Amino acid sequence: MHRNMIKLAVGLMAGLGISCNSMAAEYTLRFAHHFPAVSSPHKQIFQAWADEVEQASNGRIKVELYPSSTLAKPPAQYDAVVNGIADITATIQGYTANRFPLTQVVELPGVAKNAENGSCIIENLYDEGLISQEYKNTKPLFLFTHGMGLIHTTDKTINTPEDLAGLRIRRPSAVVAKFLEQVGAQPVGMPAPESYQAMQNGVIDGVSLPWEGALVFRLNELTKKHTDIGGLYTLSFIVTMNKRSYNKLPADLKKVIDEHSGLAWSKRAGAVFDELDKKGRAQAVALGQEIVEVKEGINNPAWKPVLDKVTEEYLSELEAKHLPARKVYARAKELSQTCQ
């Protein structure tokens, strides 16, 4: 009799264990992004976010990660969330031309100082309502930027803007494309993960990326020359959620998502990218590659006129469309000084 009771108790416990496991998947959220599964952004930002959400929800929310563009290609990732193909994405606004023009003000030369600073700027612009209208069809969780972009080339040393003339350079966004066009280069649009093969096959002569990108996408293997203009540009990212996926959650689980959103996660993402920039540069140094650091950065007399022109043209184009670009730009510059 005693043994039968023990067996019954064990059976009940096993049954409860199965029930608890099934309860753990009460809500499953598919999270798509383009970074490799072995990369630090995947592990330290997106996987960390998923793990903390699962823990805070007591296992009721399960987050399935789809790295390396396995669920949607980079240009389609935002729409994948709008249309419910993915529940959450981490994507680059610049991959969708003309869709987030006010957001991309943060990408202009000299706005951000590093990734954490840029992330603080862009999240505050959203929280203050200055760019929020651009995301009315999704539920933004947090926005961030990478660090300062550089020019990385296979063979040619870039000392002045004129040195870029005729080169095919991968550009990350319309803002950087404007700069490359101004100096006579040929901007080539492609997602960062495609840069390695394009460079290896001679399709492009170089890329515009931060040190983080050179590291994560293994481009230091192919680029021998690097030019740091000191504030050339940064790139904006967003982690955002399908509205229906968010709205179907009960109030207590919505609170979990809300508590894993906003400035703290923006700055946390920025800090990851800043650390990767250090590692990417250190790798290039260890390989004995040439690094040109432009004296005075974007205020260098050779570079300043063309960069000022890019900024002015971008703001003027947006103002002509009745968008408050100069107001956003002015606030971004203020936040650049106050964001720590």
UniProtKB/TrEMBL annotation:
It comes from the Bacteria. Residues 1-24 form the signal peptide. The keyword Cell inner membrane does not apply. Keywords: Signal. InterPro entries: DctP_fam, TRAP_DctP_sf. The keyword Signal applies. It holds the Pfam family DctP. This is TRAP transporter substrate-binding protein. It comes from Shewanella yunxiaonensis.
